[in-house]
Amino acid sequence: MNFKNNFSFLLLIITSNLFWSCETKKENEKQNQNEKNMTTITDIHTFAKPNESIMTHISLDLKVNFEEKTLSGKAIIDIKNTENAKEFWFDSKFLQIEKITLDENETTTTFKINEAKPHVGAGVQVNIKPETKKINVYYKTDKSAAALQWLSPSQTAGKKNPFLFTQSQAILARSWVPCQDSPGIRFTYSAKITVPKGLMALMSAENPEKISENGVYQFKMTQKIPAYLLALSVGELSYKKYDERSGVYAEPIMLEKSYKEFEDLPTMITAAEELYGKYAWEKYDVLLLPPSFPFGGMENPRLTFATPTILAGDKSLTSLIAHELAHSWSGNLVTNATWDDFWLNEGFTVYFERRIMEKIKGKSYSKMLGFLGYQDLQKTLNELKDKPKDTHLKLDLKDRDPDDGVTEIAYEKGYFFLRTIEELVGREKMDNFIKNYFQKNAFQSMNTESFIEYLQKNLPETSKMDLKEWIYAPNLPKNCPKVSADRFENIDKELAKFKENKEENIAKDISSHEWLYFIRGLGDKLTLTQMENLDKKYQFTASNNAEILTAWLGLSIRSEYKKAYPKLESFLNEVGRRKFLMPLYTSLLKSNQKELAKQIYQKSRQNYHAVATSSLDELFK
Q: Would you say the C-alpha torsion 511, 415, 294, 209 has a positive or negative sign?
């Protein structure tokens, strides 16, 4: 290499170092600003006092014990204190704390665990000094830890090995990790997880692609995340990648099926980046979980957890993956500061999801999603007619479980609010606004009031909107965008024939969304003859599509079509997704099938995650 090349190379190194130095400085400034913000925002669902002492990193060393159904070991929490700090507070939900020490020399200290309160658990007060840098917590999880679901081999696809997965959202991280469990408090983490040999451990971090011979796994997450994005899964798993930044984990018996179903994933990532900027988390993998997983998906950074109920065989339900991918920007990158601001996560994500699907499958496809979403929203508004405050975008969840806010209000009313802004300012200006919103507020939290201020500053046209009516008032404003879907027009014609007792003729190759629209449009209750004829013609009871099947089983309950009941019972026994469980059990309890509902629930409850049973137990009271 000649001098000129040497000089150019040196200049490149210097320039690169300056660039990364600037980037690191910007990142640190953002983190400092976020920590400063959290001293002024009150989160009613945490005992943390970030204005005195805030966590910045956690290092876990845990052993997974399937026989005891516990995690045990040590958590080292790095903290940042004020000049007068005397206490560090963290959240706990039935953690069995053996001892707590301070710093690397393990100085003995005292701590106090408050009396547990409903929903939030207990606060743990640790006595510290301003110069304290680390809190060392030696602990074991309780068998009742709400975040953890321990599955026997019979509850897995492979039927040979046990399985474990976590669900930390909304405030369940505190049941398996001692932490300041608030969405507004961000930290990095590392972990050493020891599992039985032959099993693989995965986290929301840098992950292995092969099973470790000794059962020990090391993890690192260098980007700051809130506690609800802490995730762990352990089981007999295999990995197959699409490219260098995306792939699928699943039980070996489910891997090829999952791989084929999600093969549009790289295209989705590219489409998302073209819309709102570079993907910030390096890798994006999907883990297919056993059917007891309570949600459709969970947006854990680098590793989306997904339910097998989206394996329809025709990719028709993979908009859920687009939704979880969108969370990599809305939620994971810019996070709701408290659970009262949950709509900021989900409204943006639904909007982004539908833009991704429009880019991949066309506007007519996205319009179907919007139309069905509007139907879901109307149903929720009707269900909450006696709780009008729960239809506000900005919630008041004081003394309540944050899961009470997980309704279509946050998702669909939030989406239509953003659609209204788009129609006011135009799509180009809207896209620029959202892209800049993610970039300028990356790795920070945002509450509703700060968002309104940011919105009015950057899109002054929104002063023409009644923002209070959208955000702080019940139901939907009159200026909510109208929805239509041209691909439903043919279905409307066939529904009209059906209601006139004429022979309808639905094409067998229509999308899942069209089938769903058709079933919803049949009415609240049909005669047994109508149900039998429809089932014979379209094989709804035999459907492998969970969305179609749930709609059909609901209609079967209301119509007392008992030929579908064996499928209903097996479906409720196998599937743990709350979205499907709640409407089906509700329909059974409202019908004259209350005893059947109780029998099925008593038998199947053990197969459900605590997130699902907490809602269902209330339903059965």
A: positive
**Strands 70-81 and 216-226, sheet pairing:** unpaired
Tell me, what's the pLDDT at 509? 85
21 CB-near residues (< 8 Å, 6+ apart): none
Do 191 and 164 have their domain in common?
yes
| Number of C-beta neighbours around residue 383 at 10 A | 14
Rounded mean pLDDT, 528-538: 97
CATH number of the domain residue 53 falls in: 2.60.40.1730
With left for phi above 0 and alpha for psi between -120 and 50, is residue 143 left, alpha or beta? Answer: alpha
Average pLDDT along the chain:
93
The set of catalytic residues is 324, 411
Q: Judge whether 208 and 200 are in contact, CB under 8 Å.
A: yes
| pTM as predicted | 0.92
Cα–Cα distance measured from residue 434 to residue 437, given in angstroms and rounded to the nearest whole number? 5
Give the separation between CA 352 and CA 358, rounded to whole angstroms. Answer: 10
Strand order in 148-151's β-sheet? Answer: 148-151, 163-166, 232-235, 200-203
* Mean predicted confidence (pLDDT) in 74-98: 97
CA distances to 183, 280, 328, 575 from 227, rounded to whole Å, are 7, 18, 15, 27
Q: Which of 184, 293, 181, 283 is nearest to 230 (CA)?
A: 181
Please say if the pLDDT value at position 154 is more than 60.
yes
Nearest-Å Rg of the Cα atoms of the chain is 25
Strands of 44-196, DSSP E: 53-65, 70-81, 87-92, 96-102, 107-108, 111-113, 122-127, 134-140, 148-151, 163-166, 186-194
The domain in which residue 9 lies consists of 1-38
Shared domain for 68 and 12, answered yes or no, is: no
